[in-house]
Amino acid sequence: MTLFDPPAPLAERLRPRTVAEVVGQTHLLGPGKPLTRVLGSGRLGSLILWGPPGVGKTTLARLLAGEVGAHFIPLSAVTAGVKDVREAVTEAERLRGRGQKTILFLDEIHRFNKAQQDALLPHVESGLLTLIGATTENPSFEVNPALRSRARTLVLEALKPEEVRGLLERALTDPRGLSGVTAEPEALDLLARLAEGTPAAR
């Protein structure tokens, strides 16, 4: 590590490597819960992940793709357009010829207009693309009904203070985290409350 080669941000270094490392969202990932059952079947359908910023929607989507062995194409609706969707479709068609499935992750899907969302529809319908959309806005108002009807909406919740505290403790003990740093229990409690359910390291 040098001045010109700084370490990755803490949140990136501590990003969960497996679904088992995800903290929180036990209503989706606990025993017998929706995503646990889906992963057990090995078949992942299209999803819309709805929740506040910073709760790990992108991370969860990436981990789900890894769990089912699918190729992961991330796009942001802030910068992407129909051209990017077409390129993703071309890549998915190429990979399908090799027997591999493709997950298209579209962050802030609510920022795609109707025409852009319609461009996704035939490829989701055909199964060429499995769509995982992430949004902080209510999908009932921001995602086209036709697209929404072909995806299951899952609500992600802000982390509880005790869950955030567990992440802070992980940051202090994990070799990828803050090596050599210590903190008083009271400081950890305060930081966990101040994070308001959206920790920097999730």
Total strands: the figure is 5
How many helices does DSSP assign?
A: 10
- Radius of gyration, CA atoms, in whole angstroms: 18 Å
N- to C-terminal distance: 24 Å
Biggest sheet, open or closed, and with what strands and sense?
5 strands, parallel
**Classification by helices and strands:** alpha/beta
Beta percentage is 5-15%
* Spatial ordering of strands, largest sheet: 2-3-4-1-5
Provide mean pLDDT, rounded.
Answer: 90
Q: Which outline best applies?
A: elongated
Oligomer: single chain
N-to-C series of helices and strands:
HHHEHEHEHEHHEHH
State the share of residues found in helices, binned by percent: 40-55%
Residue runs with pLDDT of under 50 for 5 or more positions: none
Describe the structure in your own words.
This protein is α/β, with parallel strands linked by helices. The protein contains ten helices and five strands, in the order H-H-H-E-H-E-H-E-H-E-H-H-E-H-H. It has a five-stranded parallel sheet, sandwiched between helices. Helix 9 crosses helix 10. The radius of gyration is 18 Å and the shape is elongated.
What topology emerges from the helices and strands here?
Elements: H1 10-13, H2 26-29, H3 34-41, E1 47-50, H4 57-68, E2 71-76, H5 82-96, E3 102-107, H6 114-126, E4 129-135, H7 139-142, H8 145-148, E5 152-155, H9 161-173, H10 185-194
Parallel strand pairs: 1-4, 1-5, 2-3, 3-4
Helix pairs in contact: 5-6, 9-10
